[in-house]
Amino acid sequence: xxxxxxxxxxxxxxxxxxxxxxxxxxxxxxxxxxxxxxxxxxxxxxxxxxxxxxxxxxxxxxxxxxxxxxxxxxxxxxxxxxxxxxxxxxxxxxxxxxxxxxxxxxxxxxxxxxxxxxxxxxxxxxxxxxxxxxxxxxxxx
Length: 141
Prior knowledge:
Blueprint: E1 2-10, H1 14-22, H2 28-31, E2 34-39, E3 52-56, E4 64-72, E5 76-83, E6 87-99, E7 102-113, H3 118-136
Antiparallel strand pairs: 1-7, 2-3, 3-4, 4-5, 5-6, 6-7
């Protein structure tokens, strides 16, 4: 199993950062993939529990789907891959905490595969894509 952690600070309030990151379509630039909403949340929140998205990465990587499993507005989002991947374990947790100057976001991802070593290769790609995407990301004020 591979674990990755990404940290980023924003000069915006947690509500603004959370609302931007929670919106499925805004993740395309961060993830380096085309992102399409498949369903709305079943908990009364558009991006909440039960909402799902399809990610179509560039190149030979097949499209896959993610579903939100926990949603605490302006605080926490948890999601998992639910279809179309060689991963047998994928858990993403994004937390948002206020700071003196804005927001600290922490994004943790765990992945596992049945094929030894494949999770290591996938983790390297995720670190490059997500890390770079977060570095380039700007949230409109």
